[in-house]
Fold these 2 entries.
Entry 1:
Amino acid sequence: MRIGILTGGGDAPGLNGIIEAAGKTLIQSGHEVFGIEEGFLGIFENRMVPLSPKNLEGLHAEAGTFLGTTNKCGTEGREQEFLQCFKKLELDGLVVAGGDGTFSGLKQFEKDIKIIGVPKTIDNDLSGTDFTFGYDTACSVVAESVDALRATANAHNRVIIVETMGRTAGWIALGGGLASYADFILIPERPFDRDQFLKFIQEQKKHKRGVVGVVAEGAHALGEDVEVQFRVEGAPQAERFGGIAHSLAHWIDEKTEWEGRQVVLGHLQRAKSPTTTDRFLTLAMGVTVSQLVNEKKWGMAAVFRNGEVIAAPLEQLMQPARLVTHDHRWVKMAQALGIFI
Ligand code: F6P
């Protein structure tokens, strides 16, 4: 068969691992494999490159995506054009690594476009899979940053706030914050009480030289709105959140004897070579993708559940986002460790 591979939405470390593992195993099974450039844009613009063991070699160790991606180009209002353009590519099937935006955009074409899915989001909040690749790498960036910032926080008696990605889900802040034993972890799912938070920060003065905490970009205080930095016109989720670390640092500066400072990690969280955990996940998903293609199990996805990669219906990835619940074991663990959350 002629099989295309497409990466859609924001990048995440591990996308290249999927391209290499799925690409190589599909070629080994005798298929012709093509990479579609820049997500849906490549379909509209007929941009497809043949993939070979040679151009796939070594991709697994690189962040980003060899094929390029975009989180701006949708199919809305251009459905017929999209379908016609796709037909011109003469593909028998399409492997798609994407998030809810990419899969919802493709759902309407399920009769015409045969898809095998791979769940992708740096925020780790897709339903239907326990973890997404790239998440572990993002957590390691957060943890390394918090660990490093402790030295300067202690040297200057400061509270340093590290802002992480996470629009509506606090997984990156929670995972990275736990791994580095951050002093506080503020996440969108748990709006914080300003008075309680202030009391906690003031208490720290008694026994600490410095404080380092983590805040997800979508976190906010009780009764307050999330801070919007700017809008990306044409993107399915146009608002870009951010600024909470900056305003909290100022507020701490004003209200306490601590000096407040902030660091926004931003796209560094998506920029690092994938950890071994993420590499294993993408290798396993790539192999499962090939099996699904060989068996023509269209409409299925390679997902990670209970410690292994399995096949599940693609539509399970399109359920509402998987958020941090109030009684999640990691929340309880943070509380037991004395972390303000
Ligand atoms: O949804 C994934 C995500 O990385 C968010 O955590 C972040 O807010 C956003 O995408 C950043 O988008 P962009 O790459 O367009 O700046």
Entry 2:
Amino acid sequence: MQIGLKPPEGAVVLFNGRDVSNWHQRNGEPATWTVEDEVMTVAKGDAITAETFQDAYIHLEFRTPDMPEATGQAKGNSGVYVQGRYEIQVLDSYGWEVPGLGDCGAIYNQYAPLVNACKPAMEWQSYDIIFRAARVDGAGKVVEPARMTVLQNGLVIQNNAVLQGPTGGPVDENEGQPGPLLLQDHGDAVQYRNVWLVHLPEKGSDAYEPH
Ligand code: MG
């Protein structure tokens, strides 16, 4: 399973487990999220990494709070914004037979998850995200849209989804430019841990090396 997956060699550890000193809010102020036992908990304001990236493999773990009275978008809402532009929804969608465009694992309002891979509230879950950044021409026009493959708890929920531009509330619309990881404050005490990424080269070598 993906829970507890160790950062491989060369990974950039985005959450150090002790504090959020290398995360900030949208206004540039330091992030306010609390940290305890190597877990960060959503507080006022989104949390944004200082690190920015293009193509990347991103791993993180999250846990939604127990909110039995809440429903729909008010139940354990947060979100993982890749490059600060494309939100993979975090929500307590456990048990929904047919998850929709706003449910956990959806690329918000663009692609519902292929299957509902959610665990119940209070259980740790993982996202493994393989992201290919948008390619742009010299004028900044997108010539190849960004794409994402996402595994939730080891199950494929997004299969090379071709992104239709930024989702709602991006940090900017500068597709093709490096961007940060943003974890959303949607007012619910969602928790995160074990957050890291591996920068990926834009392509492999095209030289043939005989052996
Ligand atoms: Mg959200």
